[in-house]
Amino acid sequence: MSMDRRVRVAVLASGSGTNLQALIDWSRAASSRIEIVRVLSDRPEAGALGRAEASGIEGICLPGSSRDEQDASLAKLLDECEADLVVLAGYLRLVPAPIVREYAGRIVNIHPALLPAFGGAGMYGRHVHEAVLRRGVRVSGATVHFVSADYDEGPIILQWPVPVLDDDTPESLAARVLAVEHRLLPEAVEAVATGHVTLEPDGACRWMRPEAQPNTFILSRES
Ligand code: GRF
User: Fold this and answer.
1) If pLDDT is split at 50, 70 and 90, which confidence band does 150 have?
2) Which of 76, 73, 74, 35 is nearest to 56 (CA)?
3) Which pLDDT value is given to residue 220?
4) In which band, very low, low, confident or very high, does the pLDDT at 222 lie, cut at 50, 70 and 90?
5) Rounded mean pLDDT of 188-214?
6) Distance from the alpha carbon of residue 18 to the mean position of ligand 1, in angstroms
7) In the predicted model, what is the mean pLDDT of the chain?
8) Which pLDDT score, from 0 to 100, does residue 101 have?
9) What is the pTM of this model?
């Protein structure tokens, strides 16, 4: 990605879009190198599409009456907007393998747990936090990773821990994790966009300068 123009980011989202909003807000800063150029969703009712439109960003619900048609539309719509980088911000579909291959090292996902724990098919939204509480772990968190062919399996870019409290409900834990996601995702996307972190040919995720890896989040009990 050349450094003389902003890095074009397409965001895929199925839900309310608070992670998308965090990216939009971050991209508005003069220091940011990213520009959200298109938001795509598999759900016409996704709040993310409304957030895109409210920010003057094109929001498109994938056209097509079948999953195959919608997946074909996805590839075309990504090519059309000349996305340099693709971000899954609460996208519930598996991304077709040809797209994962085409965007290898340039497609990332955020997951509301410390992968590989509490990840994989069926582990999304409330299901994740219910499983965390059922298992009784004392720490959960958020993960941003490069996307590979399977759900939540790709090389990990950034993670951050979140305390699990004895009186937590799935909702209270989700809210605490979401607040961290909103800080983690923009950091990770900016780092990939500016080449500070890359997906190596051997499949490893490498930070160019280890000290560049943001680890300065000081989280209070409330965060
Ligand atoms: C987030 O918890 C994210 O980790 C998961 O889906 C949720 C999306 O929330 N992949 P929002 O639509 O960004 O508010």
Assistant:
1) confident
2) 35
3) 41
4) very low
5) 90
6) 7
7) 93
8) 96
9) 0.94
User: Can you read off the two tokens belonging to residue 114?
Assistant: 């410390």
Residue type, 85: L
The residue type at 200 = E
Indicate if 127 belongs to the active site: no
Q: Is the CB of 22 under 6 A from ligand 1?
A: no
Minimal-distance CA residue to ligand 1 atom 14:
18
Q: Give the mutation target among 51, 110, 189 for probing the ligand 1 site: most ligand atoms within 8 A of CB.
A: 110
Question: Taking Cα atoms as reference points, which of 136, 113, 138, 133 lies closest to residue 123?
Answer: 113
- Alpha carbon 74 to its chain's center: 17
Task: List the end-to-end C-alpha distance of the chain, in Å, as a whole number.
Answer: 34
Tally helices (H) and strands (E) across the chain.
6, 9
Do residues 34 and 9 touch, judged by C-beta distance below 8 A?
A: yes
Nearest residue (CA) to ligand 1, atom 6:
90
Residue nearest to atom 2 of ligand 1 (CA): 112
The closest alpha carbon to 40, from 50, 27, 53, 49, belongs to: 49
Helix extents (H) in 7-118: 18-27, 47-54, 67-80, 97-102
